[in-house]
Amino acid sequence: MKPSLFLVFSLYLGLLFLSKAAASDERGRYVALFSFGDSLADTGNLVRLGSSQFSTIANLPYGETFFQKPTGRCSDGRLIVDFFAEALGLPLLPPYLSKEEGEQDFKKGVNFAVAGATALKQSFFYSKNITGLATNNSFGVQLQWFRDLLPSLCEPSDCKEYMKKSMFLVGEIGGNDYNYAFFQGRSIDAVKSYVDDVVNYIMDAVTELILKGAETLVVPGNLPIGCSTSYLTAFQTSDKQQYDPQTGCLTHLNDFACHHNSKLQDAIKVMRERFPHARIMYADYYNSAMRFFKNPELFGFPKETYLSACCGVGGQYNYNFVKTCGTSGVTVCKDPSMYVNWDGIHLTETAYKSIATALLSGSYMDPIWS
């Protein structure tokens, strides 16, 4: 084995060990986990809303790897939030909208995330003539769900303490605020014009949760959208200068994601000064994912597939905006663990597990687990 490769492999094993140690330290520390966000975290809310968009997630092959059935998750298996729950020794989070389906132990946590959700209200996008939103259950709606549910989880005199002992995964949220605009042909500058609005809305939510008693909040940034199969397909070009020569990702789109993430991190720093007693952690989804776009083979992803969809059909990246995963005639790869991207938009369980492991190791969490 070459020395350089040996060092990389040793580092990987070291991070894996640290992640297990960190997870062990966190196990039993929290009584509940609450999640807000979009399709990166939704464990079944959108399918219960009966939305026509993303309706294929109610069908196999979604969920085939871990659950052996579709659960409403936009992947072949578990999501980052699921790995967080497992690391904390908590059950996988039931979707909020399953509350009418029988006994649910919501006191140990609930998932309010909805696939397709935005941070900003639906009216904001209509005012800019951005249409086609998959759901009107934006971040504000999810927060109202939490407000409605909280009285059933704790007595008024005990709620502050309950909130203090719970963890809040605030996102990822905001990605769809940009996705809808980009896929409708809006320019980078036009979309940049409301990044501050998105970030401020997220911080308003963080503020509300802290004032209710929350002291541990994880706020994720956006993924590298320039490496997303759907973006690579929609914005495919013969201009080689548009692509990162190392990764094959679209540079200007990844630069935009970094712009959002930088603004988000600056806002979190301000929040830490305002609420020094709270533990507000930035989860670096971007760089934890970029590891396997820069060195796919190190993480078990062959170079010929790491930018392509496992479940899809057609084109350089095995993705078609009309014939999507779960519809007739669309095939699925034999081994999703060999792919980063599941359906052209979302990642595989293997990719999500890699990101979660990196976060739990502390290497991509600021501040690290303590």
Structure characterization notes:
Helix 9 (195-211) runs parallel beside helix 11 (251-274). The chain is built from 13 helices and eight strands. Mean pLDDT is 92; it is low at 1-24. The strands form two sheets. Strands 2-1-3-4-5-8 form a six-stranded mixed beta sheet. The longest helix is centred in the first third of the chain and has 24 residues, at 3-26. The protein is an alpha/beta fold. The radius of gyration is 20 Å and the shape is globular.
Task: Name the beta content range.
Answer: 5-15%
Mean of residue pLDDT?
92
Spatial order of the strands in the main sheet? 2-1-3-4-5-8
Q: What's the order of the H and E elements?
A: HEHHEHHHEHHHEHHEHEEHE
Overall geometry comes to globular
Descriptive key words:
370 residues; 6-stranded mixed sheet; two-stranded antiparallel ribbon; 13 helices; alpha/beta; 8 strands
